[in-house]
Amino acid sequence: MAHVKNVAIVGATGTVGTYIVDELLKAGKHQVTAITRQDSTAAIPEGVKVAKVDYDNHDSLIAALRGHDVLIITMSVQAPKESQLKLVDAAADAGVRWILPNEWGLDQTNEALADGAFMGAPEPRRPSWIGVVCGFWYDFSLGGSPLRYGFDFANRSVTLFDEGTQPINTTTFPQVGRAVARLLALPTEEKDKSGEKKGSLAHFRNGFVYISSFCASQKDMLESALRVTGTKIEDWQVGLEGSADRYARGLKMMQEGNMAGFVQAMYTRTFFPNDDGAYERRHGLHNGLLGLPVEDMDEFTKLAIGRKDEKD
């Protein structure tokens, strides 16, 4: 049966949007439209249409979205919350059938994790929706600030939460791009002999697709870093901190007005020793259904090390 054809994306030139657009273009199965603000000067890839909108004008959004089967929303976490709500309302009025909302990341069906990591519940929406659970981005989270996965490559140090043995699911940007392109290449409706709508968008309607690059602990990541840098554990400063204590310290920082505590608490909560961050153990993964490749962790650890001067 037919797959969706016309795909609109918000954030086409953003960090994850770039990879999604690239994979959609490679697949050659869709017409892609970038939804941008009227004053945007971003360079849109060749082969992508552009629709400029006024977020304060509902009719402008409807006009841009009319005729599209899918709306993908990728926006900064700092974007106003009402921006997504405006897009969703306009998509419904424009007849868009599917939305991939701006809720990439942790497993929102795990209420304890969602509350502890400040995600909240998914927003209700009128068109059918599919959420992408991919955990934190691997190279971004491993590199840069030690507030994330505990690594400080500039100073060759790492803080292990508890003993550093709790695995979590984490995904690279390219894997997310592939997953979205392959998801949208599925037929919209397809039933097997049991009557279940497996292998189709209908199977995921108003639910989540679970993908991952690695299910890895901090110690696994450290072993990768040792291989990539050609160092030994003796060359590193390795500290230990209880995850509960580190999380509480992050909350205290937030209460004192230091928003670095938000990053620390959010990431640390994922590493609690209860498998909350290892969502494949609860739900399995859809990597196989989507034909996603097995990736080389060391390749992306090397990219992470290149982010060592980033700050949260």
From TrEMBL:
This is NmrA-like domain-containing protein. It comes from Apiospora saccharicola. InterPro entries: NAD(P)-bd_dom_sf, NmrA-like, NmrA/Isoflavone_reductase-like, PCBER-like. Pfam families: NmrA. Residues 5-109 form the NmrA-like domain. Keywords: NADP, Oxidoreductase.
